[in-house]
Amino acid sequence: MKKPVDDALVAECANRIRSGGPVGAVFPFPLSQCGFTVAQKLVIKEAQKVRKQLLKKSNPQTTTPQQPQPKTVALKPAAPPRSQPKVVVPKPAAPDQAPAPKSRSLTKLEKMLFLQQGKCFFCGETLARADANIEHLHPLSLGGKRAEDNEVVCHKSLNETFGNLPLKQKFEFVLKSAGSFRCPKK
Question: Domains in the chain, ordered, with CATH?
Fold first, then answer.
């Protein structure tokens, strides 16, 4: 609810507006929270009108708008139409170069391979796009989700080897190799 404003404060504000002085902190709270009556609003608007008129009187060159001068344009006599034969220029032959390929968005596998710096998640070897496959850490058949925190990129041969093994068995398989784990090659 807006707070009512005292008439004396409104009169002080109106005097400051008329004199061109700073209105500043006349009211004890922001104007958006002030509950002005209709009469108080009229007093402030009148003060603003008086101030505007005083500014116009003190600065007369801005009050007289300049009328635009009509321009006189001399018309040239129309030239008789010429009848010239139309010249047909053959279009150049199609260029030998193929048009530039349009950019395409990356597949999910390409994005994941990029995020893993082109390396297999399990063995760390560089992985070619043709040899890459998405491995679900928690298999879909065992309730895993198709979410980025459940998917990694690894060799296709390793993905086939792991099959539907649960996550714990996958890591046991890798850790038993004691740092010498290599993905199976076909």
Answer: 3-60 (no CATH), 108-175 (1.10.30.50)
